[in-house]
Amino acid sequence: MNMVWNYEEATLVNGFDNHDFLDQVISKLCLVNELDDSLLLVASCDGSVRIWKDYATKGRQRLVTGFSSIQGHNRGAPGLNAVVDWQQQSGYLYACGESSSIMVWDLEKEQVVKSASSETECSVTALSASQVHGGKVAAGFADGSVRLYDVRTPEWLVCATRPHQRAEKVVGLSFQPGLDPAKIVSASQAGDIKFLDVRRTKETYLTINAHRGSLTAMGVHRHAPIIASGSGRQLIKVFNLEGEQLGIIKYQTSFMAQKIGPVSSLTFHPYQVLLAAGAAGSLVSLYSHHKDEDK
Questions:
Q1: Which candidate, 138, 210, 199, places its Cα nearest to that of 174?
Q2: Are 98 and 73 in contact (CB under 8 A)?
Q3: What is the dihedral of CA 33, 34, 36, 40, to 10 degrees?
Q4: Which among 215, 225, 235, 4 has a CA at the least distance from the CA of 126?
Q5: How many CA atoms lie less than 13 Å away from 34 in the CB half-sphere?
Q6: What angle do CA 112, 117, 118 make, to 5 degrees?
Q7: DSSP characters for the chain?
Q8: For site-directed labelling of 173, which of 152, 157, 223, 266 has its Cα 20 to 30 A away?
Q9: pTM for the model
């Protein structure tokens, strides 16, 4: 179910079912046209995508379109583990499952503009579309490798590298804040965060050993020089782009004497210094840079 909240007042604004396949969990939420008459894009792990209008008005939500982002796969079928990301500048939705193909959708036309090989048999575990340079998308894989692609170039694959020493899956991937299209941050399940410059693919220029294994999520602010990582040990750490730890959030036992589960997702507000953290048990916490404003 999709739940829309007013975080300033901690009130539920709207709630509605996304589709009839109750066993298919939501894997990605994106705002399309986030600054003006925004739409809510909801992607599920089976590759199905649905886009909603008026999602923040109680009982007035309207389905604009829905489709399967992975061709040749039936919606509701198990075992796909689809990964998607939205790129506002180009209007592209990037999607891939456990196959070796990456689908590029033009959402306005609702057409596939490119279906290309990921250049590896390993499954994609993380996708990040550049919000500054249209057509560029980075993918992280189950073996710890990272690849950069560009829809606009004939060769498609720009570079490939294996930044992480251990062959564990990439759980978080993002372009760094700023206009440089070559700098990427990659987080491995093993616990390390690597800073890459794809113009120098043989080495990383910064490593943060954030967690001793069980790194489960990473978020990078779109404009501010800060990143956050979460672990299965109910812990969130915040760093700057020089690798300095700025803060740590430890989940404590709640007033109902139930421990908060492992961190499952992290995302920053694109224009404010606010961090949202999702955890097991359908719990969402919101943090600001001022301690007295934490929610």
A1: 138
A2: no
A3: 70
A4: 215
A5: 13
A6: 115
A7: -EEEEETTTTEEEEEE---S-TTS-EEEEEEETTTSS-EEEEEETTSEEEEEESTTSTT--EEEEEEESSTT--TT-SS---EEEEETTTTEEEEE-SSSEEEEEETTTTEEEEEEE-SSSSPEEEEEE-SSSTTEEEEEETTS-EEEEETTSTT-EEEEE---SS---EEEEEEPSSS-TTEEEEEETTSEEEEEETTSTT--SEEEE--SS-EEEEEE-SSSSEEEEEETTTEEEEEETTS-EEEEEEPPPPTTS-----EEEEEE-SSSSEEEEEETTTEEEEEESSGGG--
A8: 152
A9: 0.90
Largest CA distance in the chain: 57
Cα(145)–Cα(161) distance, rounded to whole angstroms? 6
**Which amino acid type is present at position 154?**
P
* Cβ-contact 49, 32 below 8 angstroms: no
CA atoms within 13 A on the CB side of 145: 13
Residue 261: pLDDT over 80: no
Please give the Cα distance from 195 to 182 (Å, whole number): 11
Please give the torsion angle defined by the CA atoms of residues 159, 174, 90 and 31, in that order, rounded to the nearest 10 degrees. Answer: 160
| Residue pLDDT, tens place only, 112-169 | 999 999 988 899 999 999 998 999 999 999 999 999 999 999 889 999 999 998 889 9
Phi, psi of 293 (to 5 degrees): -110, 5
> What's the confidence (pLDDT) of residue 251?
67
Token digits for 39?
Answer: 């739409």
